[in-house]
Amino acid sequence: MHDRDGKIWMDGQLVDWRDAKIHVLSHTLHYGCGAFEGVRAYKTPDGTAIFRLREHTERLFNSAKILRMKIPFSFEEVMEAQKAVVRENQLESCYLRPLTWIGSEKLGVSPKGNTVHLMVAAWPWGAYLGEEGLKRGIRVKISSYTRHHVNITMTQAKAVSNYTNSILANMEATEDGYDEAMLLDASGFVSEGAGENLFVIKNGVVYTPDLSAGALNGITRNTIFSICADLGLKVVEKRITRDEVYICDEAFFTGTAAEVTPIRELDRIELGCGSRGPITEKIQAAFFDIVGGRNPKYAEWLTPV
Ligand code: PMP
Questions:
Q1: What residues are annotated to the active site?
Q2: N or C: which end of the chain has fewer CB within 10 A?
Q3: How high is the ipTM of this complex?
């Protein structure tokens, strides 16, 4: 990953990909206090555009605020940095990774007095859970790891350290032959995937765990709310039990990387028709129309680079 051509935006400058390095004594590397975003840019009829750039940038600043980190760049500068990275690397469609971290002035748990840094990289990244997964659905397993409690790590921050839990869950599930993990909150209610929000459909109503279950406030999740409103589908945020998922008609994961990925099986129990369900298919098609610039209603969600 580190050995390729291209430019990475680092602390205000576009540097060669291979030179985008930090010191081994960086505070974030030792204690995990840092925040990041996952953003996508898509090819549209009007050229490449970043999807919901403003909302991703807002979440990055909010994550930093929650972690008591002060990003040393303005909101506009961070928006501009993301556009520049896509432009300079001449990417038609790609994934973007902004990340803010704490510098190496000193170690010790308290980062007080250390500098805060920001970088943005971008590279082509296809379907996160596979092209086949987008069409046929993926196989998921309830994790033996509990999702973050809202007062242990801060679940509305897309914090670097939150992802140890995701890595453990994903590795356990994939080593057992599944495509992804689904995590329960500390009370046993369904929370989210290792890097995705969850939706289930029952009798034509769309349900998703409310955020008190420790799930990230996903920007794709929010996009699904608008799509469902357009399709005349009711969305209910509520506590969901794992057996409610077993007996749902359809289920899918959402995320910037995962986009809209149907779930065809949970814990070896077939969900609904055992493939991508008809409502999921409609929602997925509407999603790809929006990100691909084919729905003028949502033109303001697309920022040309
Ligand atoms: N939950 C977790 C844990 C995630 O990492 C992600 C990906 N950012 C999501 C949900 C989905 O969020 P979004 O739709 O904003 O990418």
A1: 158
A2: N
A3: 0.99
Q: Are residues 148 and 197 in the same domain?
A: yes
| pLDDT tens digits, one per residue of 145-187 | 999 999 999 999 999 999 999 999 999 999 999 999 999 999 9
Instruction: Evaluate whether 276 touches 251 at the Cβ level (below 8 Å).
Output: no
CB 191 within 8 A of CB 150: no
Phi, psi angles (nearest 5°) of residue 50: -90, 130
The residue type at 145: Y
Q: Whose CA is nearest to atom 4 of ligand 1?
A: 195
Type and span of the H or E element at 251:
strand 250-255
Which ligand 1 atom sits closest to the C-alpha of 219?
15
Best CA proximity match to 94, nearest among 221, 192, 216, 8:
8
CATH code where residue 107 lies: 3.30.470.10
- Residue closest via CA to ligand 1's atom 11 equals 255
Name the token pair of 105. 């002035």
Quick: pLDDT tens for 239-295: 999 999 999 999 999 999 999 999 999 999 999 999 999 999 999 999 999 999 999
Structural contact between residues 255 and 200, judged by C-beta atoms closer than 8 angstroms: no
| Listed residues 74, 100, 123: the one ending a domain | 123
Kindly report the backbone phi and psi dihedral angles of residue 163, in degrees, each rounded to the nearest multiple of 5, phi listed first: -85, -5
Q: What is the DSSP letter of 140?
A: E
> Distance from the CA of 222 to the center of ligand 1, in angstroms?
11
Give Cα 67 distance to the centre of its chain.
18
